[in-house]
Amino acid sequence: MTTTTIPSPPRNAAHRLRWVVADSWTVTRRDLLHWTRQPVQIVLGLLFPIMVVLMFGYLFGGGMAVPGGGGYREFLMPGMYAMTMLFGIEATYAAVATDAARGITDRFRALPMAGSAVVVGRSVADLLHAALGLAVMVGCGLAVGWRWHGGLAAALAGVGLLLLLRFAVLWVGIYLALLLRNPEALVALQVLVWPVLFLSNALVAPETMPGWLGVVAELNPLSATVSATRELFENPGWGESSWLGRYAVPLALGWPILLTAIFLPLSVRLYRRLDR
Predict the structure, then answer these.
(1) What's the number of CA atoms in the CB half-sphere (13 Å) around residue 183?
(2) What would the pLDDT profile of 73-105 be if each residue is shown by its tens digit?
(3) What is the pLDDT of residue 51?
(4) Rounded CA gap, 61 and 75, in Å?
(5) Which residues contact 168 (CB under 8 A, 6 or more apart)?
(6) Which one of 83, 137, 149, 170 is CB 3.0 to 4.6 Å from 92, fit for a cystine?
(7) pTM for this one?
């Protein structure tokens, strides 16, 4: 009779780290291969933000006055880039919740692999997918007349802030998916995402809102990223006079780091405690 020996986890810290990295990359490859086998889903996901850009840029843009002058599409695009990063939470939630509902997550947990590899691998795959989506959006922005006017370093810093926001948002999506484990709850999540977009400075100046509502909009992490990218791209903005507007770049760093610090360990802990 043939017996199979399951390898025990390495105890040395360096070996344990390599073990986590190797297992995480295996999960990342699995998710990337899954996407390549469903190209239609990827294309449709990339078409949605492009349609939103065309709708706002050409249908509504004529009625929008840009503060301080400047082209409306240059004002619009940083908000659309941030919107794409925010809406990525839906794809993350759907993928993780579907794996959990189908028992795939339980199969991973039965394997001799690092406990954090599944969620870390998913986060890396989703971040790569987000980078692709952002590249498509930047190409769309260039096609409709958007430009950055600062140096290349500032532009790359703006892109980095957008991906940092996406990294934080995907951990929120992973946590909610592991907590609910219900793909049908995606509809409720979609209903909640839209108010986060509109209750920000992406499309409307917080100064035009009622006092308390304007404060909430400025405290929105999405607003910090939008303001920071407009500043780095040297695109027209709302000319915010509050300290929240003046310190947009530090806030665009601080909010995602805080969200990641909260939801990353919560996600890993929840994954390890599933069905206990």
Answers:
(1) 10
(2) 888 889 889 988 998 888 888 888 888 888 877
(3) 83
(4) 10
(5) 221, 255, 256, 257, 259, 260, 263
(6) 170
(7) 0.85
